User: Fold this.
Amino acid sequence: MPDYSCSITSPRHKRRLRNLTDEQILIWLLRQSRRNENGCLICDKSILRDGYAHIGVRGKLIPAHRFVYTTIYGKLDSSVDTRHTCDVRNCIAPGHLTHGSRKQNMQDAIDRKRIATGQQSPNAKLNISQVRQIRNQIKQGRRLKLIANDFNVSPSLISAIKLNYRWKHDR
Ligand SMILES: [Zn+2]
Assistant:
């Protein structure tokens, strides 16, 4: 049996997580991780045999990196993979995640330059350039609520981007 006993899926945290929005869970998850020398955000929680960290959200155990990706960039079709540009399976750094079909994944292994970006997601909430603009506005000290209004997303999503921005290595 995989070890689910560590913090994310323990009964105490399940209770805590139940009433949180996806964005609030995202912030919580990013805070739990640690930055390594390559800028990866390493999530040590609930690593299954496949090497990916997992998180229990509303009764479903899902890969943590996919949860991070879809919460920031929008839902993906189940046929679309969430992938790491850093090849670290338990990394959840938003800037290290991208998506693509399984066929693309194979192409990726052949040609690293062909990595797709979040903006190609059909249901993307934000594209990569918008995330960059948001980071710049946060840096300039603009109020998160105003930024959220401009980009038509929730203030907690902006907080998540802010939280990630503090980690210098992220693109
Ligand atoms: Zn990484």
